[in-house]
Amino acid sequence: MEFFAWAMMAAGIGMGLGSLGTGIGQGLAIQKAVEGVARNPGASGKILTTMMIGLAMIESLAIYVFVVAMIILFANPFTEEVVKLLAK
Amino acid sequence: MVHPFLFLKWLEEQLHIHVGEHVMYTWLVMIILIVVALVASRGIQLVPSGMQNLMESVVTGITNLAEETMGHKGMAYFPLVATFALFILVSNLIGLIPGFYPPTANLNTNAALALTVFVMTHVIGIKEHGLSYLKHFMGPILALAPLIFIIEIIGHLARPLSLSLRLFGNMYGHEIVLMIFIGLVPFLLPVPMMLMGVLVAFIQTFVFTLLAMIYIAGALEEGH
User: Fold this and answer.
1) Within an 8 Å CB–CB cutoff, is residue A60 touching chain B?
2) Among A47, A69, B70, B101, which residue is least crowded by beta carbons within 10 Å?
3) Which tens digits make up the pLDDT trace of B32-70?
4) Over the stretch B68-81, which tens digit does the pLDDT of each residue have?
5) What is the biggest distance separating any 2 CA atoms in chain A, rounded to whole angstroms?
6) Whole-complex ipTM
7) Looking at the partner chain, which of B1, B168, B211 has a beta carbon nearest the beta carbon of A53?
8) Is A56 within 8 Å of B169 when comparing Cβ atoms?
């Protein structure tokens, strides 16, 4: 049973850490984009497009963590073995 | 974590065809798009009105974006990119209606889309440059070519992975959050999440389309 408790914790803590870094990264990117638009409002269209691509790239990191967390929670490859060991 | 009720899944069980609900909903999206295209293009007028007006503005928007990103040369691949945009947008938005499941919330659909982009970029590159397409992978210095080659190959292989996982993670994550909120408080609480879902649907469509266009533009340009 302890295995599943640790799996839950791993998913939760992993997702938290993943979104922490991603949040900081996206915040920095948006900060610079807003500064750029404030200095030169004419370039806002290009800045928006570039920022979107950058944000999507950064966001991928959190998404990877999310996918791993979902695998841990719903499609854990070790579940069967653990259940077999527990039944013994 | 699944929806409480998906009507096409129910239909699939009644008809005893086992293709998976995401394939059923992909077919639904295809039917919607084909019907919309037929309705919009039937009786085209010089001064558009109704459905034709809406579709013209959508296509004009995608055209401007494609022209800006890929340049004049890349407009040959505009139909591919526009199809991606329309299909992904309708697939994402369909998930906001109760009883519908977005096909993009399944990794198989997204892998198919991303692999199409991956194969297309290389086909375009070879078609455009012939054998000198290999220069794209060589880097500027010939002596470093073996090292750069391996890095470039890994970078190119990461493209379909990141494209498909990004779309999948966003849509599936949104589904999961909605289901958890509905499980907690079914009344009014999921509405802000659904509003965010509209935003996510549009942004992810934009990102996927834009990245596909950037990859195609990268294959079109001359190797250094």
Assistant:
1) yes
2) A47
3) 999 988 888 887 777 777 778 888 888 898 898 888 888
4) 888 888 888 899 99
5) 70
6) 0.79
7) B211
8) no
